[in-house]
Automatic annotation (TrEMBL):
It comes from the Bacteria. This is Bifunctional glutamine synthetase adenylyltransferase/adenylyl-removing enzyme. It comes from Saccharopolyspora thermophila. Residues 504-1002 are annotated as: Adenylyl transferase. One of its GO terms (cellular component) is cytosol. Its cofactor is Mg(2+). The gene is glnE. Involved in the regulation of glutamine synthetase GlnA, a key enzyme in the process to assimilate ammonia. When cellular nitrogen levels are high, the C-terminal adenylyl transferase (AT) inactivates GlnA by covalent transfer of an adenylyl group from ATP to specific tyrosine residue of GlnA, thus reducing its activity. Conversely, when nitrogen levels are low, the N-terminal adenylyl removase (AR) activates GlnA by removing the adenylyl group by phosphorolysis, increasing its activity. GO terms for biological process: regulation of glutamine family amino acid metabolic process. PANTHER family: BIFUNCTIONAL GLUTAMINE SYNTHETASE ADENYLYLTRANSFERASE_ADENYLYL-REMOVING ENZYME, GLUTAMINE SYNTHETASE ADENYLYLTRANSFERASE. Keywords: ATP-binding, Magnesium, Multifunctional enzyme, Nucleotide-binding, Nucleotidyltransferase, Transferase. It catalyses: [glutamine synthetase]-L-tyrosine + ATP = [glutamine synthetase]-O(4)-(5'-adenylyl)-L-tyrosine + diphosphate; [glutamine synthetase]-O(4)-(5'-adenylyl)-L-tyrosine + phosphate = [glutamine synthetase]-L-tyrosine + ADP. Residues 147-325, 597-833 form the Glutamate-ammonia ligase adenylyltransferase repeated domain.
Amino acid sequence: MPSPARYGFSDSSRAEDQLRRAGWWSDAGPGAAEPIVAALSRTPDPDLALHSLERIREAAEASWPELSRSLADDIGLRGRLLGVLGDSTAFADHLVANPDDWRRLRSDAVHPTALAERTATLLSAVGARGDGVPGTPGGPVAELHGSDAVRALRAAYRGLLLDVAGHDMASLVEPTLPAVSYEKVAEALSDVAVAALRAALSVGVAELKRSGVDEVPRLAVIAMGKCGGRELNYVSDVDVVFVAEAESEIPTATRLASLMMRVAGAAFFEVDAALRPEGKTGALVRTLDGHLSYYRRWARTWEFQALLKARPVAGDEDLGARYLQAVQPLVWTAAEREGFVADVRSMRRRVEDHVPSELAERELKLGRGGLRDVEFAVQLLQMVHGRSDEALRSSSTMDALRALGEGGYVARADAADLVDSYRFLRTVEHRLQLRQLRRTHLFPPFDDSDALNVLARAVGLRSTGRNTAAQALVAEFRRHSNRVRRLHEKLFYRPLLEAVAKVPTEALRLTTEAAVERLAALGYTSPEGALRHIGALTSGMSRRASIQGTLLPMLLDLLANTPDPDGGLLAYRKVSEALAETPWYLRLLRDEGVVAERLAQLLGTSKLVPELLVRAPEVLRLLSDTQALAERDPGEAAVSLRSTVSRYSEPQRAVSAARSLRRHELLRIACGDLLGLMKPTAVFRALSSIWVAVLESALDVSMRDVARASGGQAPARIAVIGMGRLGGAELGYGSDADVLFVCEPVGGADEPTAVRFATSVVEQVRRLLGAPSQDPPLEVDIDLRPEGRQGALVRTIDSYLAYYRRWGEVWESQALLRARAVAGDPELGERFCRAIDPIRFPDGGLDEAKVREIRRIKARVDSERLPRGADPATHTKLGRGGLADVEWTLQLLQLRHAHEVPQLRTTSTVDGLRAAAEAGLLAVGDADELIEAWTLAMRMRNAVMLVRGKPGDQLPKQARELAAVAVALGYPAGVDTGAVVDDYLRVTRRARVVVERVFYDS
């Protein structure tokens, strides 16, 4: 015998009894009633639906045969009635009390759908007739009053809600019926609420007249919150604000407003006027001027946020329209208020903090990842960006979200995800409230499987595989909550919001003339040129242009705080045009405010950064991650470069890959340096490390290529010895690489063969690295080799030693002080360095003749190599107290004392000076003076390269360039450039005094 259990009834025997009494079950099963029983099985709670039907049958036995036939024949009635009864005990109670109301759910029933029709239905329920606007002079006045009016309105209102709920639930039970979207349901519920307010106002007028008041005051009812946004729940307070026409009418208008609230509260829902000026302590009704006076003088940030959803819904239509027209400009300038963004964020945190901790995880509305997260994020974005874009000025959360996505203020995917999650959470909220028509936002306990299963089926989830409907619902709830919270934090705490909010509203919508004036006031020397750049970036109707329009007002302000706003804007245009087809570029600037801020600082300071950026745009992503930008281990970057390049066998492709990776690293280091995120020594080490990695990669691929071309194994191994600043790991952005090449025969090869092979390799390395490029050059300088430019490119260790021992001059011993194995065969390189130790650290130090020779060479360098016209006081390399002064001073100490002070045997200038101080060869104060001067000169040299985009050893004389150099050095914006020069002169002058005393012994 078939059992009702197969149709999803939990209590099978009880269900069978009820089905038999309804005439839908026999010993053979449901028979002709199978469509009804099958439909019951698809309801959220089949047992509840069947039990409610039995209650209706008992309450209206006379009409039961008609209802039973209609359920069998009318699929629309079946879906709507059973859908409601399977989820709502409250509507079951209503249908038991009003047994004829089931007919309004029939497919052929004509029920009100427009606002005017719903209003007419409720007015008719209390006998109000007339063509005017309810609640105004001449409008319909209710005949019923008191408890009679309340009962009539409650029944009629429940009937209208039943219409909405029936269509909302129908497709769950009968899938062939059209589904009704959450938005349509919310709009219908909002219209029903507005109709209820109008009917309550009509009853209020009647009560007012019965009390002896003949003249009805002109009163406008302004809906706020969800009713204002046409996104109301089944059960919710309705937030309102009341506006009177004249001061003299306020007492009567207040009485009318109070009557309306009392009637609505008894018949429909609570009417909450707490959003009025001064809240619950303020006057219930004010004139329009009274409202405006308060908002202009006293209103707090959240009150403007509440006005975002203000909508006149009842009472005097003209007065309501004038109210809305008057307050809207206040809403769309509120973001300019001091601390606006912080205030909105603080309000959200306070709301969240009031949720009891034990309920926070299940709180649909106020908890983390709940509805308020979506609403606060959307409203904040609206109020910041809606000042200039009227498309965002929607009172509907869903419409505003879509507009934010279409306008480029939010990524399309993020907007779509928030729409999807908001719709899901609101649908869950609706189903929870339908159960008993009670105001609730609390998700069922996660261990209450019965409640969860019913709710899951009510939102359209069913058991899948091993997972029950309850498990599916909890998983979906958590997925949507987590997604909402993640996107809320991404959008709500976006730094861009503070930056855009600081831009005056009028600056977002300037006429050409006003724009020129504002740009000039911001410090742009060519406002007309800036306007052309702005026009080029924002022209057209593309999404890209829209996002640029959002970003530019903020970027213009940010660039105005840099040394070169005009150059920065031009650079921004070039970068934007170069990256026009890069899908994530503008999205990154919009979503990661710190990226926009840092990019503006970089572009308004440096010419090198934008040149590199158009060819290494991926570095932009690092601007939001300080650790990835500025704290990467140089060794890790070098290993990554060598590993990538080693995959290529063709030399040109390998070096091209090395250049690309070097460009990325060079830009990363430059950004970290300019933003003040890297210490100077870290910059020098990182630049040196990446140069070495490029050199190593070029040597490796060249050795493989030359060996392959000669048809065999490489007959030699090669080591690269870093000299000068490369040897000291102290390179700058524009430094050459001073090197020596050492080879050694392998595999039985003779020395001439090994040298020829190594020479071919070195020539190819120099050719590959020296090829023209838009990047800073990669020049391999081997002029420090024996015999200089006339000497062999490569030698063996014995050849080098033979030369140094027989022909070497003192300056060559001095140059070898910074020799360090940097690339190629490490063992060969280390042997070379050990072999030359007696030459660079000679036993007994230097005799006086050689000391005088070094001093003579230094004097000649000072007088002959300083470029014509250069200022020796501000030349970072050869000027007084500059790099050469400090380095020669240390090197003289090393040549004289390193044979007996091992700590001096270092290639690092700073480490060497400290070792000299520790050994008592330098006063500690003198060492500090030299280190400070050397570091400042190195930083100054780097800053000039960053600012100009090309190397330079002289402090700039042009004021704007010098200001940019100052910012690159870490001085605050707007610093007196004269003070920067004075600082440099003071530091180098003190260093020169030490040089004169220690180096020249004077």
